Amino acid sequence: MNISCCRNLPHTQRLKWKSLGVGFNSRVYFTFTDFIRSVKYALIKKGELMNLSWIQLGSLFMFLGVGLGAFGSHLLKSKLSAEYLEIFKTGVFYHFLHALALFIVAWLSTQSSDMKVQYAGIFFMMGIVLFSGSLYILSITEIKWLGAITPLGGLSFLAGWGLLFYSVFDKAF
User: What's the start-to-end Cα distance of the chain, in Å?
Assistant: First the structure.
């Protein structure tokens, strides 16, 4: 599926997108591959993500996981139904699991310069935001259609694990 955007962007935005290799004809079409390429150029510079190490990002996501877990168990316990509290707990569980995966990415980054490891970390972070984030918002607001976003986060998690497997498997044989 292509997402089109008009060329009526301010000059500074146009230059920003042009530096990412995006042309400005009458319309610009972004595919999923273009999105990943844009993330690569915008976020990764010589193996560093936004000048933060994977250890720092893993620590940040773990910190947020602890805070959200405490928020859910102390403040939301009396305000949410059992069903929505369970949804919130599922979000926290996957948040923690994949924040720990960022530490695996940190370690593998020291062992290999393979970009698949870096992409795996990006997919884990996207998964935390999409999967756990949608579950957090769904449980608090009870807006059911937010559950449609959750599988995109699950696919991001799967892509991250697949990339890690492939990066190690690629070196083993």
Answer: 35
- Cβ atoms of 152 and 125 closer than 8 Å: no
DSSP string, 50-111: TTB-HHHHHHHHHHHHHHHHHIIIIISTTTS-HHHHHHHHHHHHHHHHHHHHHHHHHHHHHH
| Helix (H/G/I), strand (E/B), else coil: 133 | helix
Is residue 169 pLDDT above 50, yes or no?
A: yes
Alpha carbon 137 to chain centroid distance? 16
State how far the Cα of 39 lies from the Cα of 120, in Å rounded to an integer: 12
pLDDT in tens, 137-150: 999 998 889 889 99
Per-residue burial over 33-58, b if 16 or more Cβ lie within 10 Å, else e, is: ebeeeebeeebbeeeebeeeebeebb
Q: How many CA atoms lie within 13 A of 13 on its CB side?
A: 7
Mean pLDDT of 152-164: 96
As a residue count, the chain comes to: 173
Token pair 């190690």: residue? 168
> For residue 54, how many C-alpha atoms fall within 13 Å in the half-sphere facing its CB?
24
CB 126 within 8 A of CB 86: no
pLDDT band at 78 (very low <50, low <70, confident <90, very high): confident
